[in-house]
Amino acid sequence: MADIIIKNAYVLTMDPEVGDLKNGTVVIEDGKITEIGEKTSESAETVIDAKHSVVMPGLVNTHTHAAMTLFRGYADDLQLADWLEGHIWPAEAKLTAEDVYKGSLLACLEMIKSGTTSFADMYFYMDETAKAVEASGLRASLCHGLIELWNEEKGETDLKEGKRFVRAWQGAAGGRIKTMYGPHAPNTCSEEFLAKVREEANRDGAGIHIHVLETEAELLAMKERYGKCSVHLLEDIGFFGPDVLAAHCVWLSEGDIEILGKRGVNVSHNAISNMKLASGIAPVHTMLEKGVNVSLGTDGCASNNNLDLFEEMKTAALLHKVNTFNPIALPARQVLQMGTVNGAKALGTETGMLKPRMKADLIVVDMKKPHLTPCFDVPSHLVYSAKGSDVRTTIVNGKILMDDYRVLALDEQKVMEEAQKAAEELVARVNA
């Protein structure tokens, strides 16, 4: 007997060999998809009738700072330097481990409710984020943020903590947690330190999550210090490979894009955050044309201000159409691929498609809504019309985390109340 059968669904497999099933069935057993087809002879303990709904792979958010949910709306509409130095950094200096746990748990709740089943995160007190992931049932690739700032002693301390975290949590939560090394960026970490991180990652078989060329200020600072940009510096020290996840990648030259493609680097495109902070527009269309694996991320809630990847997909599609003056750029199905298949590839997880033997990370999207009526093209609706709030059911590793809009994995009201209290107390400490 199977664990879960989902029937009567429009199944968006994201598997090019299978395509979409207009009235399909998905069978789940022992955390994996075992069967996809029109019908099944199997029976199951739980049967979900997905009539008027789409079943699709869960969305993958490849760049977050989950605990920054506590800063949602705290410092908006400011110049970048003022935003960071006058508001965000002073607030982060007052963060406690308990704050990070409560903020991360709120992020997990938001992701469960809006269709994200897996995410990559870089921050502080990462044991607390890992505990939140463990409690929530989500899948995550986590790393401790390493900011060396050309201080050898600080670098050693940070790297030691990063290494401890990688080894302590790798494969935890029944394999739902993967760990990575998280050097913040080439303009906040020295060349020597970045080379050390690469060595440690090789030794542990862990990936690397890093910000790359998010701003023009980073580009100019790198050229002044090294006479080359971040991408060329990282290339020259042998840093790049298919295990590297590079967030933002806004200020790239064509030569930079060639390097990323050649080395198999994964890119996390954060359209809304880049727009809000006026960082610029990443050359996503060109990267995709050159074969770079481009996925989607939200960044933290201080610069987004939510974790809704449906909103991120729509914004990315529209941004690159108007930026290239090409309405065909980033069509709906390609953007869906960025949010599912490409994200799973970036994190190295057996998810992102619905096919037998893949891990059962999937969502059910309710299409019987006024803003989704009528429906002529399902992928188009998912990108241009749907919202995270249209997700009715979320399943990770074969476990139902939200069933028909009711969150089972967490106490929704308690999580929100505790996060609200933590945020208020944090701001009070900052202003004291």
What can you tell me about this protein's structure?
By secondary structure, the protein is an alpha/beta fold. Helices cover about 40% and strands about 25% of the residues. Strands 1, 2, 3, 4, 5, 14, 15, 16 and 17 form a nine-stranded mixed sheet that branches. The chain has an eight-stranded parallel sheet with strand order 6-7-8-9-10-11-12-13, sandwiched between helices. Helix 2 (about 95-115) packs parallel to helix 3, helix 12 (about 330-340) packs parallel to helix 13 and helix 12 packs across helix 14 (about 380-385). It is globular, with a radius of gyration of 21 Å. The mean pLDDT is about 95.
Query: How helical, in percent, are the residues?
Result: 25-40%
The low-pLDDT segments are none
- The overall pLDDT average reads 97
Gyration radius, in Å: 21 Å
- Total count of strands: 17
Anisotropy-based shape: globular
Count the helices. How many? 15
Q: Specify the structural class.
A: alpha/beta
Largest sheet: 9 strands, mixed
Bin the strand percentage: 15-25%
**Beginning-to-end CA distance, first to last residue:** 60 Å
